[in-house]
Amino acid sequence: MTEPLLSVRDLKTHFQTDDGVVRAVDGVSFDIFPREVFAVVGESGSGKSVTALSILNLIPKPHGKIVQGEILFHGQDLLRLKDEELRQLRGNKIAMIFQDPLTALNPVFTVGHQIGEVFRVHRGASKKQAHARAIELLELVDIPRPDQRVDEFPHQFSGGMRQRAMIAMAVALDPDLLIADEPTTALDVTIQAQIMDVLLKVKDEFNSAIMLITHDLGVVAGVADRVMVMYAGRVAEMSSCSDLYYNPKHPYAWGLMTSITRLDQERKDRLLPIQGTPPSLLQEFDYCPFSPRCPHVQDVCRKEYPVLRQCGSHDHTAACHFAADPGWEPPVELVAEKVS
Amino acid sequence: MADKLLRVEGLVKHFPITKGLLRRRSGEVKAVDGVDLSIGQGQTLGIVGESGCGKSTLARCILRLLEPTAGKIFFEGEDITHVEPKRMRSLRRQMQMVFQDPYASLNPRMTVRDIVSEPMAVHGLHKGKRRERVGELIERVGLNPEHGNRYPHEFSGGQRQRIGIARALALQPKLIVCDEPVSALDVSIQAQVINLLEDLQSDFGLTYLFIAHDLSVVRHISDFVGVMYLGKIMEHSDRVGLYAKPLHPYSQALLSAVPIPDPVKEKERRRIILRGDVPNPSNPPSGCRFHTRCFRSEEVAASGEDPVTIGTVNTRQVARVCVDEVPSLEEQGEGQGHLAACHFAKQKQVI
Q1: B219: contact with A, CB 8 A cutoff
Q2: Is residue A116 in some structural domain?
Q3: Of A215, A160, A221, which is closest to residue A187 (Cα–Cα)?
């Protein structure tokens, strides 16, 4: 088996608030392998963005703090690096694409200047060289007339083009890992399709791995190799993409699958939502955090925290007491899918 | 057409673009540019389109929160386009709105009880029994009536949206305009709110105008669907017709871009990827507004299946007629009442 590119072990990132400690990420472990697309799925507040920010140590201080864990990148623990060493790494070996490209771009510099900046800072390129590389990159992400566009400002770009420029900037130094935090959430569907295409294209071009953070199960289905489902700051289920969609084990993952409206299936008369709302993260869970909403809840779920356990294939794990041997049948919709 | 609860004819809304200190008019944004639609009692009309297509402006014009530039709006057969404010006020009892952002649309300094009872106070309804009525409404939308004394910040996004719905229901309206009511919510919560909206519709015989950009949500809730692009309706059909047999190339592209949560199907799919972005609505393209991005027009120009004169738009070869003539929204295809505004409409299965 290949060595993982990134290994996160028992990461805990907490935030100090007036109401107490928010356990935004509370014991998350996962590996990302070279050149794979690793998707992190979850609802707002599940801790997926905080996990990503923790990797690059971009947690807002002083309220947020990584209180425990290891983040091994090429075997090196990022949490032990000095600020200067970390700065060398960011943008260079690990790059990030944010949800909102307008706030991530500086409005007073041209797009070309900002893309070229990475070459000047990290590679010591001259202004002229940086400018030329910026044009090449804009062309790579399919921006029309890149030689003219390069000298324009972010406000002259449309939302889709800004996100392309962000991608160009992120892949500029040929990173091994690209973290994309909801890269298409702010965009319309037709633009979303374009951006996902570009993202996969640059991934192949530069042989990067992608950590794709999203709440959109449709986007994940099309691109991911492996998926991690997060709930209440912890991992609920982790598996290959097809296992998650055709054979989910955690009742939360089932719930997500059955509650969405799907264009590929007959219209249902009624949706099957997950009841209730996600729990507050001010508490430390010594029981299953999903148990108050779970349709199959048992006594043990209310008493004991379920550790991740293997179920089905070797790389399929779920944090449910009954993951390996559920005493209930998965929802009809999913079974029907599996057979067809 | 007398039985339609709401009918809109040729609705136009242009926003002026002003320049300089004297606010000279230098142009206008054609947000809504000639829209006809109607909704029958108890039905749901979904309007889909990308951001900037004018769907929210359309909704606001219908409720006369914005003054339309031209066109007519009929509510229960009465022309309400220019009725005086006093009459409009009483008409608003019949038509309410649910907003997109449950964080911005509730006053943070009012308790839930105050928020839900405010419309009744404004219209002087249920005097003396308001408290009771508010309790009923809060319970009906799935919240605990004991929470009436709480403030909006104590609730989650989904719960706030329920409060917004309770407020819209307070006056027992006939029409509710829902402007992206679930797009700010997480998927598991979206389903709860959609189910609630459907239950309320069957219980109270409500009519919905449902504005959204999510095509699968619109399919779930709507009886009829209109697809908007740059201020115009491109295709209008019943639910089944639009999703199974879309006629307009824009609807086809839109549908094919929606990702499907099934890895095998999704990876096998061939999607239509549109080039470029939506043009600026202050200077929409001539002829068919979609011709700058249309693959169908290119197809026709290239194949010669219809003998057409060819035009060139930014190095693309398209059918000349698409650049010159505005296609009218008319019945096409096999389905009755399936309207498309396209010179070369052709069915294409995309899902």
Answers
A1: yes
A2: yes
A3: A160
Domain span including residue A193: 6-224
Based on the fold, state whether residues A220 and A283 are members of the same structural domain. no
Q: Does A208 share its domain with A77?
A: yes
Task: Say yes or no: A219 and A263 in one domain.
Answer: no
Say how far apart CA B192 and CA A44 lie, in whole Å: 16
Top residue of A247, A261, A280 to mutate, by most chain B CBs within 10 Å, is A261
Do A163 and A305 lie in one domain? The reply is no
Task: Spell out a b/e string for A101-114, using b for 16 or more CB atoms within 10 Å of the CB, else e.
Answer: beebbeeeebbbbb
Same domain membership, residue A41 and residue A169: yes
| A44 and A159 belong to one structural domain | yes
pTM of the model: 0.90
Alpha-carbon gap: B78 to the closest alpha carbon of chain A (Å): 34
Mutate to test the interface with B, among A163, A271, A280, A340 (most CBs of B within 10 A): A271
* HSE-CB of A89 using CA atoms within 13 angstroms: 20
- Count other C-beta atoms under 10 Å from residue B101's C-beta: 15
Tokens representing B317 are 């070869």
Q: What are the tens digits of pLDDT across the range A262-316?
A: 888 888 888 888 988 889 999 999 999 999 999 899 999 999 999 999 988 888 9
Query: For residues A10 and A29, what is the distance between their CA atoms, to the nearest angstrom?
Result: 5
Residues A299 and A204 in one domain: no
Question: A39 with A179, same domain?
Answer: yes
Nearest-by-CA chain A residue for B215: A263
DSSP string, B65-88: SS--SEEEEEETTEE-TT--HHHH
What single letter denotes the amino acid at residue B302? A
Distance CA B317, CA B192 (A): 47
Q: What is the pLDDT of residues A12-33, one digit of tens each?
A: 999 999 989 999 999 999 999 9
Total domains present in chain A:
2
Q: Give me the total of CB pairs closer than 8 Å, taking one residue from chain A and one from chain B.
A: 135
Residue type, B255: L
